[in-house]
Amino acid sequence: MLAGANVAIWNVSTEQPQEPSSISTAVDPDAEPSPAVDNSAIPDRPGTYVQTQLLSNGRLRSDEYIVTREPTDTVTLRVRPLSGYDGIAPVVQRLEVFADGSRVAPARPRVSGTDVRTVTLSEPSTRVHLRYVTSRGVLESAPSETGRALVLANPLSAVVEVPVRPRWVQLTGADVLSLSCVVGEQTPQPCGGPDDVGAGWRVELPRAGVSPGVLAQVDLPAA
Predict the structure, then answer these.
(1) How far out from the chain centre does Cα 108 lie?
(2) How far is residue 149's CA from residue 143's CA, in Å, rounded to a whole number?
(3) What is the C-alpha separation between 128 and 138, in angstroms, rounded?
(4) pTM for this one?
């Protein structure tokens, strides 16, 4: 069970992959540009960390950090499987990969459906940084008079060839009402709680087993 799982989601106001298909490599002109890369934000402790921001256009912008004790040569990517939520079908675009601070050009900077992408790093690295924009990762309530929605805060599953455990997931950009951890067809389990320093919600992912999807119920910002 995931009830004891600890994923992290902070409210601003107030740790994986296999299958293929052909896709377009065009950059989505409507996606918001990513801000400048800040390598100082990479955590020191080994693990997988996801920071996701809900944008005003309903897309998600994510920075994912994979920190390992042993160097890795590749990272394998796929959209995180999520059963029972047909309205959430993430399309990951504008994928950027950095290995120990050096940019790596993915052959196809987009992942959706059953696509599996294996990115070969320019050299063995212990710090991999992924940046991407996701569409179709937000499911609004229907009808939604209150602007309530579900957000998949960790839409991309990233796996490296050396052992590394997931650590936490963070979401900003909306009022978070509750968090659930979801694995396959299992019943979603509440997860998360107030941060020790009062900065919002923080949840640590399970130490073993499949890394869950993190679903946040949010109130969307007023248009």
Answers:
(1) 18
(2) 11
(3) 26
(4) 0.80
